[in-house]
Design brief:
Strand content: 15-25%
Strand order of the largest sheet: 3-2-1-4-5-7-6
Shape: globular
Number of helices: 12
Distance between the termini: 46 Å
CATH class of the largest domain: Alpha Beta
Number of domains: 2
Number of strands: 7
Structural class: alpha/beta
Helix content: 40-55%
Largest sheet: 7 strands, mixed
CATH superfamily of the largest domain: Vaccinia Virus protein VP39
Order of helices and strands: HHHHHEHEHEEHEHHEHHE
């Protein structure tokens, strides 16, 4: 874990938000969501502000508990969480057929954990696009520490309207990131535009599955918990993602919910009934310690006011994710591999 200590966590809390404004930002963020009277259309209309506030508030928590790659992975028995995450990233690189010299785009790259791993694994140059200034600043520092600053870079931009010329990249991927887009078609169409003809786009999407019942109040509560805890305007069905890809012009090579058939459940790291030394901070005991540590840091003034509120909605997200996984109504790893045809008529 790159941020190992309590003081490192405290120093990053709030991201680029002024420390005195963190509590106000938390309150503004919460009001976007169902539990505080927020509406889906408002979240979609203000997605840039909502998602930026979310990542300013939570990035240090993520890095403290999860490491540099903020995503889930299918997991084999005897495999550590860290190993499964690396394998999940390598799988994506292999599916894209990455070759040395390829110019690759990571859409919604976080602080760049997958970007660095995939660049080293495939000997490619990877550009990460991200609209959050704090994450980019942190990612550049981690690139420097890892020694990949010459082959990996970051661009601050909205993935709904990227500044790259048409047909710029040899391959594009997104890892649990385009779920933040207010409109899947608009996001995929922009990715289609900057991808070279004949090349591939692969992603892991957060989706509700066909088992989700919109008329079931418990299902709706779980969905709302995931949305507030993870900065999402909405959570689409797998079929909606697939249809949006086709409308954007992509040819679907194959798609599958990789959560189905995973030897160990993807939500295991967040399951309070599970104990693990290798991912201790994610266990119930680790989360209890973190909760009280943040409370103490906020009390003595090392962490800004509002930090405990962030920890609270992240706990709510964890509960929603575990229940969504158990009931098989939600997946964080709906995978697809899609190709941009060589010509528009193909």
């Amino acid at each position: 874990m790159s941020k190992a200590g309590a003081l490192d966590l405290a120093s990053g809390l709030g991201g680029k938000i002024e420390k005195t404004e963190v509590l106000s930002a938390v309150e503004q963020y919460e009001r976007y969501h169902v539990f505080y009277g927020g509406e889906e259309e408002e979240r979609k209309a203000n997605y840039t502000d909502m998602v930026n506030k979310y990542y300013d508030l939570v990035t240090s928590f993520y890095e403290f508990g999860w490491g540099e790659s903020f995503h889930f992975a299918p997991r084999w028995k005897g495999e550590s969480l860290k190993e499964s995450i690396k394998r999940h990233e390598h799988f994506l690189a292999l599916q894209l057929g990455l070759k040395p010299g390829h110019k690759v785009l990571d859409v919604g790259c976080g602080i760049g954990g997958p970007l660095r791993e995939i660049a080293r694994f495939s000997s490619t140059s990877v550009t990460g696009i991200n609209n959050n200034e704090y994450q980019i600043t942190r990612g550049k520092e981690l690139n420097r520490i890892a020694g990949v600053e010459k082959t990996c870079n970051f661009v601050k931009a909205d993935f709904m309207k990227m500044a790259f010329p048409d047909s710029t990249f040899d391959a594009i991927y997104a890892i649990e990131a385009t779920c933040h887009a207010p409109d899947a078609y608009g996001c995929y169409k922009e990715i289609y535009r900057v991808l070279k003809p004949g090349q591939y786009f692969a992603a892991y999407e957060w989706c509700m599955t066909d088992s989700f019942d919109p008329n079931n109040s418990e299902h709706q509560k779980i969905k709302a918990e995931i949305e507030i805890g993870d900065g999402l305007p909405d959570i689409r069905l797998t079929g909606q993602c697939l249809e949006a890809l086709k409308q954007a012009g992509f040819e679907i090579i194959w798609e599958k919910d990789l959560a189905v058939g995973s030897p160990l459940p993807w939500y295991l790291p967040l399951d309070t009934s599970h104990f693990s030394l290798s991912s201790f901070r994610l266990t119930s005991v680790g989360r209890f310690i973190t909760r009280n540590m943040v409370k103490g840091l906020e009390f003595v003034g090392l962490a800004p006011k509002g930090s405990q509120r962030v920890q609270d909605f992240l706990e709510r997200a964890a509960e929603g994710l575990v229940e969504g996984g158990r009931k098989e109504i939600f997946t964080p790893m709906y995978f697809f591999l899609a190709r941009k045809p060589l010509s528009e008529r193909q």
